[in-house]
Design brief:
By secondary structure, the protein is mainly alpha-helical. About 70% of the residues lie in helices and about 0% in strands. Helix 2 packs antiparallel against helix 14 and helix 11 packs across helix 13. The chain is globular and about 60 Å long.
Amino acid sequence: MSQGHRQGPQGFSWFAIARLGLIQACLGGVVVLATSTLNRIMVVELALPALLPGVLVAMHYLVQILRPRMGFGSDIAGRCSPFILGGMVILALGGLLGAYAVVLMSTALSLGIALSFVAFFLIGLGVSACGTSVLVLLAKRVDDTRRAGAATLVWLLMIAGFAITAGLAGHFLDPYSEDRLLAVAATVTGLAIVATALLLAGLERQAEPHAAAHKPEPELNFRTALRQVWDEPEARHFTVFVFVSMLAFSAQDLILEPFAGSVFGYTPGESTKLSGLQHSGILIGMLVVAAAGSGRLFGRRLGSLKFWTISGCIASGFALAGLVAAGVYGPGWPLNWNVMLLGVANGAFSIAAIASMMRLANEGRARREGTRMGLWGAAQALAFGAGGLLGTGLSDISRALINDTALAYATVFGLEALLFIVAARLASQIRESPSSPGNTMTQASALQAPQAPSALNPQGARTALSPSHPAPSGLAN
């Protein structure tokens, strides 16, 4: 069995990458309908406890532990398109069923809630199959020099899918009625399926001549494949890094705006603008890393994925340390600039991590790209699900133990900063492959095996990694 980095068939053009990005936009559109629009209707129009949509969203993350199995399916089949389209169909059915369940809640509450759990299970399953397979296809078919840019393009298109769907759905839902909700849900989900089928047409066709060289291994089962991947030091270590970094990334999502309101006296409108600053910073960080990936903007050494991953984690830790200082110093602290810096650092490290993931999927045992990508996607989904609970839970505990709201929030931000420093340490063990001495994004990279055994270590906050703005493509949505 071949080992090491493998260069696949002819790399995708930017047009082909954009087609996959548009599929992610369709995925994001259905997800945001379920996690944002249906969330609001349950809480506001139906006056149900906010815990209900919170549990449903958490469950859709939990279901994504199936991502490795979905990736293994594409490994065995040798094609990703059937899993992308099939996943989109399942996701669309879940979104449509979720809308029907919400309508049913007004007359048959228990039955509507039961159907909503089925719907969100299907949503998590569809995201697992579709999102994982999109990233697997990108990992196999995108050239090294384009991976950072491809990750950025796909993520931007996914965010566009959130924004466009939320805007249009909001327009056509006003004034709200159950018939309008069902019509909007049917339109969004139906268009997602049709668009995905059209965008996939012929996309893998040029790979077919290579299929004979990658015949499935006889009698290979999922448990064996997963054990083989977990036994690879690189894959195992990167799983730990993904979990720790995305746990730190998501833990501040649900407490940043309450912190701004409680300590700095921000109004809801002002805290929303603060969230907008963070989003702007994330976009800047993403674009800088994408430009650096070519090696032309900052030179070859500053085009390194390792550099941006480590620097992004460290900068995120320092930005969170700034929020600790903000809690101690109080309203005089430049909170807006601090949050903007946090966004830039988050955007830089997350795009570098996604690009690294695309590259490392091709390292190790052949025909395990999907299983590796699924393992990392599951780690991130679990981190996102746990991150919100960790951040809010720790803030509640700290406020109960510390009779000072500002210091309580500062304590939580400090713990999150430490997580980012741990993530930076894990990222520092990333090394370039022996055949790639230049240490740039344009060259292959691998992970240095950890010195000690590792343990298994990125949808309503308004951030790019929250229910209303699902996680980066192919990781968790």
